[in-house]
Amino acid sequence: MPELIETGTEPAAAPAEPALLTETAPPAAAPAVTAPQDPAVPALEPFLDPLRVPPVLRPETDPESGRAELTVRTRPVRVPLHSQLPPSLMWAYEGQVPGPTVEVRRGTRLRVSWANGLSGPYPLIKVETRVPANIMRPGYDPEADTFDRRVPGLPPWTVVHLHGARTSGVNDGWTDNAVPPGETQLSEYLNDQAACTLWYHDHAMNITALNVMTGLAGMYWIRDDEEEALGLPDGAREIPVILCDRNVDTDWKGRPTGVLMHKVLRDDEDVPRPFFGPYNVVNGVVQPHLEVAARWYRFRMVNGSNARFYTLRLCHEDGTPVDRELVDRAFHQIGTDSGLLPEPQALPEQGLTLAPGERADVLADFSVLKGMRVHWADAATNPPGPAPSPEVMQFRVADEAADDPFTLPGRLSPSYVRLSHATAPDHEHRWVVLTPPAATGMPMMWEMETVEDASSVQIPSDGIVQVQRPGRPLLTLRRVAAMFNDTTNFMVREGGWEQWNVLNLGGPVHPFHIHLIRFQETRRQNYDARGFQRLSNGDGTVRGYGTVTPVTFTGELPVTGADLGWKDTVRVGDTRPAPAGSGQLVSVLGQFDGGSGRYMYHCHILEHEDESMMRPFTVMPGVVMDMQPGMHGGGHGTGHGGHP
Question: Which of 268, 318, 371, 464 is the most buried (most CB within 10 A)?
Fold first, then answer.
């Protein structure tokens, strides 16, 4: 049996485990909600409740075989998101929201039995509204909102993906391989990768956005000797932080019921937009507080939202920003999605930005802030509708400094090597185009191939995109796939290196995630994408989408700071306001090793993933690929030192 370790804040005790829900269980009583100033969003007192810290599972490893086993069961529970809200029915790994943090050492072969113990009704309702202001309001407006009556009939059909893991395709959590209640998903993780902050979450086809929102997420930490040598804060001072946003239903008097609500805007094009909620939630608690000693802490952070981007700024109690000099002394980012940075980095001037799926490993020296109450406030712009309360999480720092021998190391990861196109081994090139919703109704993800002879295609044509790069011939790309079930084109050689070029033609910023590998961002460029347009026939009907004039390079953006780190999810697009038609190209480089089989890449805005922004790719041993002539899988590469 694995050792179950309870970790918690200092000095708050871990919360009691919620009772298992049965179909006959009555809803638990809750304190009444204070009458709000704005009747649209019931007021909840910020920083009233302590941060919930999930327990840690450290499976025991057999010293001879290096193997370990673990069973993690999902079950329904009632969980209070805030002490002024009734408890919410949720689905949870081991009855915890978020799920337990799994901790293993590098090289341990861990076999996990993900047991589906769910039962009862689906724990949320889905609503679509046509009034932008309504999406940030709890409850249902009968004059503007519509229930999705399919959702109550959804079964507890789940599959676990360990996000960022180097593992074979059969263990990756293929989206169609979900299991019903009473069955178990067996996965074996080699954990043969550098120390990093992974997370596990549901990945069931068509309903990932809904299943994750029910509570199905948790963290997974890999340790190694390089990390251990740094002597970083641990135990109760190493804290998982899972950020997300949520909404709830209300009764006929406008009082919150605690029932989770997935409310989205259906726009003028009759397309539902992603979910944004009025309540900022950290580890399953709305706007919690954390009491900390005046010493060093480590925060392992992940944005587990469906769609919300967070830009976290440190603020005083009155909402004014903490002086930059104090922030620079107190906070240091030491890691990204897939491992440690080469050296500590100051947090960005505008704040720490995390897109859905992204992680940050952050050290905080609270001796710099002793005696203060400060909080993270969200400064990100997330459309549509009114912004929620910006407060995210408060730190209550002790008055007296504690004895702490830890000092910030100047060098974090001696094994870190900066990748570049010029110095990478021979590698393939892939092209993926992200289309703007204004052109196609909703964002699409197009898989592209290079057209060697541009005269062989008509310009403009549906699915043809031309790109004018700096100092390079005009590039002509042709769409070969757009939907998940289209033909698989990307056949990747196991152990091979590849550069993926992801071109956003002016839509929203997309967090682009590739399963199996870690990579580095090697290039980011701005483009004028106004030439990509809707193409019409003579009678005004639409014949497709493509470039009338080439998408044209407008400027290079340096890759600096934490963006130099190892990643598995990268933001493609500018998070700052940009002129209409502004596009962006991001190139990432990595090695496809650690497993073979069938995998996915997708946008990590979960509603985009569920709709159409997800595609499969296959990784195969080279000798197997060579058995079938022509099985290059759309690779359009050059060798070492070539051009993308």
Answer: 464
